[in-house]
Amino acid sequence: MEATFKTLLGYFCIANVVVNAFHPFSTIYSYFHESCDSTWVQFNAAGLQADLKSQLFGQHLASRIILKAVTGFMNNNNPQKPLVLSLHGWTGTGKNLASKLIANNIYKKGMDSSFVHLFVPGLNFPKEIQVEKYKSQLQHWIRGNVTACAHSMFIFDEMDKMHPGLIDSIKPFVDYYEKLDGVSYRKAMFIFLSNAGGESITQTTLDFWKSGKDREELELEDVEIALSLSVFNNKNSGLWHATLINKNLVDFFVPFLPLEYRHVIQCAMAEMKARGLSPDPDVAYKLALGISYGPEYDRFFSIPGCKMIASRLNFFIEAITIPPDSKPSVFRIRFNSPGKKG
Ligand SMILES: Nc1ncnc2c1ncn2[C@@H]1O[C@H](COP(=O)(O)OP(=O)(O)OP(=O)(O)O)[C@@H](O)[C@H]1O
Ligand SMILES: [Mg+2]
After folding, report:
1. Alpha carbon 151 to chain centroid distance?
2. Residue ranges in the chain modelled with pLDDT below 70
3. Which residue's CA is the nearest one to ligand 1's atom 28?
4. Which residues are annotated as a binding site for ATP?
5. Ligand 1 atom nearest residue 266's Cα
6. Distance between Cα 94 and ligand 2 center (Å)
7. Residue 91 confidence (pLDDT)
8. pLDDT tens across 208-227, in order?
9. Burial class of residue 236 in the structure, from the number of CB atoms within 10 Å of its CB (0-12 exposed, 13-18 middle, 19+ buried)
């Protein structure tokens, strides 16, 4: 008996030595190779707050809801269900940008993390005829990835273009199940992006402005009812409300307000800075003037949001000869009207 115990102790000691000998290597390995641990996956609430404030312009409601929802969820060690956010709004108002900011403050590699999965229907599920195949692929993908990392993030872009069958196939994962086939999905995050409800958000924002109130005074309650009604009644989104919204599986509807001229200017200034140029307000004003505004009579909101800013900026920038040792700020900015050459 004593001999057996000694033998076991011997094995244990050897095993310990072996593990300790390799430990530094496993630490080095996990330092370079992304893994599902706190080195690579760690929520930074202050970082998210700062990024939303400094990078997402004109979206006080969305910023507030996102910060609260994500912070509450990430700080809860035992969530009841995965976090489901549904981001709505007119084109170019920052829905993808907001998803990126969330990812940047959870995953060290941000959107490049292998735990962040972005689906675009036209790209990933292009053929309606193959929907059954996509369904099983998508389910396998979600199951496999959540098994590998509980804190996985799934972003579904253009949700209003997703086939209803595919949306149905996501439903079990976002529901209140303890486990499905031995896998818990409760720490995963699902973000749905769509333009559904964009018109109603715009109308509410416009009415608010017409009544002489400050945009920043707009509260979620002001937008929520009109938004949910319009999402329910929209023929494109009508199919997915039945499965996800009706069952209360969406935790937060996040409205993205239409952007005004002043926000477009902020976007232009930020874009110049991001390119290493010194931001020039004159260029920003001219750029913002060059895009179209709506709705028809009021012309108060940017039709493309901030979407065309990056490409339009190219028309305003002329790269002059850069001395080899100079910084990118030697780029000279010229006032060319968009579309004109030279
Ligand atoms: N509110 C914003 N603040 C700062 N930049 C913004 C904002 N909205 C859009 N942008 C910029 O405009 C471009 C397009 O934004 P984004 O892709 O996030 O729009 P979207 O809401 O997803 O639009 P769509 O509905 O057409 O997909 C990006 O370069 C983004 O950085
Ligand atoms: Mg988008």
Report:
1. 15
2. 1-31, 232-242, 318-342
3. 307
4. 89-96
5. 4
6. 7
7. 96
8. 888 989 899 999 988 887 77
9. middle
**pLDDT at site 318:** 61
Atom 6 in ligand 1: residue holding the nearest Cα:
94
Q: Where are the beta strands (DSSP E) in 260-304?
A: 293-294, 301-302
The model's pTM is: 0.85
Q: State the residue for tokens 């430990």.
A: 23
DSSP bridge partners of 253: 86
Other C-beta atoms within 10 Å of 34: how many? 17
Calculate how far, in angstroms, residue 148's C-alpha sits from the geometric centre of ligand 1.
Answer: 31
CATH T-level topology, domain 45-256: Rossmann fold (3.40.50)
Angle between helix axes 281-289 and 261-274 (nearest 10 degrees) is 130
How much is the pLDDT for 34?
92
Task: Give the whole-angstrom CA distance, residue 208 versus residue 101.
Answer: 28
| Ligand 1 atom closest to Cα of residue 90 | 25
Q: How far is the CA of 144 from the centre of ligand 2 (A)?
A: 26
Q: At what angle do helices 60-74 and 95-104 cross, to 10 degrees?
A: 30
At residue 62, the pLDDT reads: 97
Residue 336: predicted pLDDT: 38
Residues with CB under 6 A from ligand 1: 55-59, 89, 91-97, 193, 195, 259, 267, 305-307, 310
How remote is the CA of residue 13 from the centroid of ligand 2, in Å? 56
For the chain, the domains span 1-33, 45-256, 261-333
Q: How far is the CA of 322 from the centre of ligand 2 (A)?
A: 35
Residue 24, token pair as written in the block: 């530094």
- Closest ligand 1 atom, residue 99 Cα: 18
Strand partners for 85? 191, 252
Q: What is the CA radius of gyration of the chain?
A: 25
**Each residue of 176-192: pLDDT tens digit?**
888 888 889 999 999 99
Which residue among 55, 88, 90, 96 is best mutated to probe the pocket of ligand 1, counting the most ligand atoms within 8 A of its Cβ? 96
pLDDT at 334: 42
Beta bridge partners of 256: 89
pLDDT score for 319: 42
